[in-house]
Design brief:
- The structure holds two protein chains of two kinds.
- Chain A is α/β, with parallel strands linked by helices.
- In chain A, the strands form five sheets. Chain A has an eight-stranded mixed β-sheet with strand order 15-14-13-16-17-18-24-21, sandwiched between helices. In chain A, strands 3-2-1-6-12 form a five-stranded mixed β-sheet.
- By secondary structure, chain B is mostly beta strands.
- The chains are: A alpha/beta, B mainly beta.
- At the A-B interface, helix 3, helix 11 and helix 12 of A face strand 29 of B.
Chain lengths: 618, 366
């Protein structure tokens, strides 16, 4: 790469929607190391409304730890960040400052259509499919007066507006009426930056030019295919992709103070998902392994997957999805709304009534930066995280398959290409990496391991890693400047090996609890380990150790790999080798006595949970 | 580390924006003193044009319509007024068309018999809501008012703007027994006090002329079962027939803090404005109870965040001390391990003589 640098000390910040994370990387004793890290609340909301204040707080904490002075100055015309070495130790003097940003957080949308049950409903589906929170749906048959609707739209400050209506060649005047309403509303961007609010027009294509002309001075208009080209047909793909791309490229990273931050960095700011995506791609190609990685944040959950092309060794492009309505702080209420309280409750190893559980979760939503003080509070967040991760993976797969369908096209030759479609399968994945506050900061890594496998249900033999201190975004942006350093740090400092997870693909409805599924023979062990339906078994296999493993299948429909192989070399980690007989059948296994079952599973992996005495006292 | 601040102050200087939904007319000048009732902005929303295709509707020829139409361009018509009347010999077969809307006849086209009635315009008026001085004019849509008032900001709210006299009720729960003891208030009333309210109190409140309720907490389940709305405070489904609600602390059953009790004692009997608008993100809008008459003494500037320091009084917003107040006795440099296992910077708070360590992320300044 032409823009690669040779700096020996680099400071990188990742401005998330809730927290700004700063890390200082430097060469020490010939190797790249993390020499300091600090966090501070992100400051994009009023009254501070300047992302650089949070950056400055995090950098100041790093400077204090390192004994260097990081000076943040705002002059009348220029802002500069001085990284001054006051310790006379030149290895600690940062020479580059880089940043990623997802401070713009979750995606909130307003939807407009002609008829509430037809075009407005289709537009709403497109917005939801793109991972948005739909704040309001307005149609001409709504009961609200136009001025009330305009006021409401303005008040809501949507990130993106989607306007639909009319079949191709159909209604025109009514769509222009909706345009008039939008001009009346003249919504400003959520953070009151100077950017025009993006608007996706997915209506009657006969008047797309008129719509563009009418709205272009107030909105950043993007024209896409009609969401309802005929009354019978619904075509969401184009609108959904446009919303997703606009959010990723323009909304997510933008926040008050973004321009100031841009003037501080020594290389352009990279949207956080793009940075993580870059790092995952490098890691996959370097290791020759397929990877699925997740970054669960406060407002959004991003998933990245890099898989092989069908029947080929070559990798496909990284597929990334941003579920902008699923997260652990601002979006936590939406996770509950989408998953349902009972789905969250099933993960708790202690009793809690619905009202109290909802109270705890909603209080987190109105105070998004607060931390769980008790073990119960922590495990409630872990329970919500499982559902956020599960729903995000559904969204990721849905988008991946929709992308495939989109590429397939409609003519006769394309029909044959559907045979080439690469259906998403968890069996394809060699490695799963978890990242994001709730995973990286879990006090006990066994709990992080359980969150990952319970929600994603990897199949076959999968290596599970954890981003130690939530560093993937930082390495992603660093890789643009020094890819060798980023890769070195990825292995030495970033990815904590948790261990290998074994779980077959199978028809779960056939089995009864306790029924023998498979036996694992580990080289050097005299006896095999029997795994029955419902079991979760830990075999100690420490970091930097590997073992040969052979699997004997006891139910013929079970599958452990695409090529049907049953012998594997498995790597250890902080948790070890985990043999799972649950097959993701949580609806069946947790139908009765879920608390006792969860306590057994937590106990199997030595995951943290309240003691029996504490549970009795609750 | 910055700590969010939710004001409870008996005398604070604040600035609030008043805004029209559409461009309109500013009715006040810079420096004008306003009461909460003073109209400060207004706009005329032009009515819709309703086109009546009379020949198609009445089965007549356009020239026939022209002969029998009873109204002319510029005439005012009201709902039910005859606009076409074609008489028959015995009146049995009269053809009559009446206006379905009120407004002014904007056009009548002889050639096709189409009649256009422009519906009445809607007057939108924005009042000052708080008493103060006009400090900025942002024509043609908004103004700012500066005021010295008493202010209590809540965690979450429901409902729009109301004004009334504060009535402090010293009860833990606002229920039907409390409601029975209340008179019909001659002027609108805002009830404050208590940990929570019941469905019976909420539904009966309007019958006592209660326009607002301020309590410490609400059970999350009650948001849907009693308020019939969602957790998000700006939900459009909250009925304007219901009283506006301000929740001081949050969800659950959280007793009122002493600061809130003291504030309510000061506010009792005074005129107040209340709104339930809440936005967790992007602007962090909190519901507010604004007492028009501040307490005597020095008023402070409104601060929305602070850097906590030893001696500050803080409110705990999570964990087993949720809702309690404590004074910071120290801010340790070293990380502290919470019961959950999370390591974090804490403040050591003196809560009623007990020294407890609370994460800096779990406190709010007052």
């Amino acid at each position: 790469m032409s823009n690669q640098i040779q700096a020996r000390c680099v400071v990188v910040t990742d401005c998330g929607s809730t927290t700004t994370k700063a890390i200082c990387f430097a060469i020490q004793s010939g190797a790249w190391r993390v020499i300091s890290r600090a966090e501070a609340p992100t400051t994009v909301e009023k009254p501070v409304a300047d992302v650089t204040i949070g950056v400055s707080n995090a950098l100041r904490a790093i400077g204090k730890e390192l004994g260097i002075q990081i000076v943040y100055e705002e002059h009348s015309s220029q802002i500069s960040l001085h990284l001054e070495d006051v310790s006379s130790n030149d290895t600690l003097s940062p020479q580059e400052y880089l940043s990623t940003s997802s401070a713009g957080g979750g995606l909130q949308m307003v939807v407009l259509g002609l008829v509430s049950k037809i075009t407005a409903k289709s537009a709403e589906r497109a917005a939801l499919g793109a991972g948005a929170i739909v704040q309001n749906v307005y149609s001409l048959d709504s009961s609200a007066e136009p001025y009330e609707a305009a006021d409401r739209i303005r008040e809501l400050r949507p990130d993106i507006v989607i306007l639909s209506g009319g079949t191709d060649g159909g209604a025109e005047k009514q769509i222009l009426d909706l345009c008039e309403l939008l001009l009346l509303a003249e919504p400003k961007s959520r953070f009151e930056t100077d950017h025009k609010v993006p608007l996706v027009y997915a209506g009657n294509q006969n008047i797309k030019n008129e719509v563009y002309e009418v709205l272009k001075n107030v909105f950043d208009v993007k024209i896409v295919d009609n969401i309802r080209p005929t009354i019978e047909d619904e075509n969401l793909l184009s609108a959904r992709s446009a919303v997703h791309d606009i959010f990723l490229d323009h909304v997510m990273s933008q926040a008050p103070g973004y321009q100031k931050l841009q003037s501080l960095v020594t290389s352009p700011i990279v949207p956080t998902p793009v940075a993580v995506s870059n790092m995952i791609e490098q890691a996959a190609k370097n290791a020759g392994k397929t990877i699925l990685a997740v970054d669960i944040g406060g407002a959004t959950t991003d998933i990245f997957s890099i898989r092989r092309k069908k029947n080929q060794a070559a990798f496909r492009d990284v597929h990334r999805s941003v579920s902008a309505n699923l997260g652990m702080s601002y979006s936590i209420g939406n996770v509950v709304a989408l998953a349902g309280l009972s789905k969250i409750k099933r993960w708790l190893p202690f009793h809690m009534d619905d009202d109290n559980l909802r109270d705890v979760i909603w209080n987190k939503m109105i105070r998004p930066t607060s931390l769980p003080e008790s073990m119960e509070d922590l495990l409630i967040e872990h329970a919500v995280a499982r559902e956020a991760l599960r729903l995000s993976l559904d969204h990721h797969i849905d988008l991946d398959e929709a992308d495939g369908a989109d590429r397939v096209g409609k003519d006769l030759s394309d029909i044959f290409k559907t045979e080439e479609k690469n259906v998403f399968s968890m069996l394809d994945l060699d490695i799963v990496i978890g990242s994001g506050g709730v995973l990286s900061h879990a006090p006990n890594r066994a709990n992080a391991f359980m969150m990952i496998v319970d929600s994603f249900c990897p199949q076959g033999v999968t290596f599970i890693g954890l981003d130690s201190i939530f560093m993937l975004p930082h390495l992603g942006v660093l890789s643009g400047r020094n890819s060798a350093a980023a890769l070195e740090l990825l292995y030495s400092e970033c990815i904590i090996p948790l261990g290998t997870y074994v779980s077959p693909q199978g028809k779960v409805s056939k089995y009864r609890k306790g029924e023998l599924l498979y036996v694992v023979y580990i080289e050097g062990e005299s006896r095999g380990i029997e795994v029955t339906f419902g079991d979760l078994i830990l075999y100690t296999l420490p970091r930097k150790s590997s073992q040969k493993m052979r699997i004997e299948i006891k139910k013929k429909d079970l599958v452990f790999s695409k090529d049907n192989s049953l012998e594997f070399l498995v790597d250890g980690g902080d948790i070890g080798l985990v043999l799972d007989g649950r097959l993701g059948a949580f609806d069946i296994l947790l139908r009765e006595n879920s608390i006792s079952q969860q306590r057994d599973w937590h106990g199997s992996l030595s995951a943290s949970m309240p003691s029996n005495a504490e549970v009795a006292a609750l | 580390m910055i700590t969010p601040r939710r004001a409870i102050s008996t005398s604070v200087c604040l600035v609030r924006e008043r805004r029209l939904p559409v461009a309109g007319q500013v009715l006040v000048s810079l420096g004008d003193r306003v009461t909460y009732q003073t109209p400060v902005l207004k706009a005329d929303m032009k009515g819709d044009l309703v086109i009546i295709r009379l020949p198609e509707k009445l089965g007549m020829e356009p020239e026939d319509v022209t002969q029998h139409i009873l109204v002319s361009v510029g005439d005012r018509v009201t709902v039910g007024q005859k606009i076409v009347h074609k008489k028959s010999f015995f009146s049995y077969f009269d053809i009559i068309e009446k206006a379905k809307v009120s407004g002014v006849v904007e056009f009548f086209t002889d050639s096709n018999g189409h009649l256009g009635i422009r519906e009445d315009s809607t007057l939108l008026e924005v009042r000052a809501f708080i008493p103060g001085v006009v400090s900025e004019i942002i024509a043609p849509r908004s103004i700012k008012i500066e005021a010295t008032v008493g202010l209590l900001q809540g965690a979450i709210g429901y409902g729009g703007e109301v004004t009334g006299t504060v009535c402090n009720i010293e009860a833990d729960c606002l229920d039907e027994h409390v409601l029975k003891q209340l008179p019909y208030f001659e002027t609108p009333c805002i009830i404050v006090g208590g940990t929570y309210f019941t469905k019976e109190f909420f539904l009966g409140a309007r019958s006592r002329n209660i326009v607002g309720i301020v309590v410490s907490s609400i059970k999350s389940d009650d948001v849907s079962s009693i308020l019939k709305t969602s957790v998000f405070g700006t939900s459009p489904v909250y009925s304007s027939d219901h009283p506006t609600i301000l929740i001081v602390e949050g969800f659950g059953s959280i007793p009122l803090s002493q600061q809130a009790k003291d504030f309510f004692l000061y506010a009792h009997g005074k005129l107040a404005s209340l709104h339930g608008l809440t936005q967790v993100r992007a602007g962090a809008i909190r519901p507010e109870l604004i007492i028009h008459e501040p307490s005597q003494g020095v008023s402070s500037q409104e601060l929305l965040h602070t850097y906590p320091k030893v001696g500050d009084v803080m409110r705990v917003v999570r964990g087993r001390h949720f809702g309690k107040m404590g004074r910071i006795v120290s801010l340790p440099e070293k990380l502290f391990k919470l019961e959950s296992g999370i390591e974090t910077h804490v403040a050591e708070l003196d809560i009623l003589g007990e020294i407890v360590s609370v994460s800096l992320a779990n406190i709010e300044s007052m």
